[in-house]
Design a protein that fits this description.
The protein has a domain of 57 residues: Irregular (Low-density Lipoprotein Receptor), CATH 4.10.400. It contains 1 helix and 2 strands; from the N terminus they run H-E-E. It is α+β, with helices and mostly antiparallel strands. A hairpin with a 5-residue loop joins strand 1 and strand 2. Helix content is 23%, strand content 7%.
Length: 88
Amino acid sequence: MQPSLRTFNAEEVFAAVRLIVEILLVCVSVRTACSSRDEFRCATGECVRARDRCDRFCDCLDCSDEHNCRTYVRPPVVVLYQLTDTAD
């Protein structure tokens, strides 16, 4: 006797993936405090390094480490050259 195989439609697969993601988010958010003051607690409950907050890169799953940041972006340096003809 062979085991029967079942095919899944796209909606079933999407629902299963969504459930797995929700379970993972719950597992991550169970943690109530970060282990040290050198960590930042994301809105999802995960902890990232405090120095990674406001660095213009999402380190938290929900990018909450980049919310309410006043990041200074240095303008690019422009160097102007004046070409002179030295051959007389």
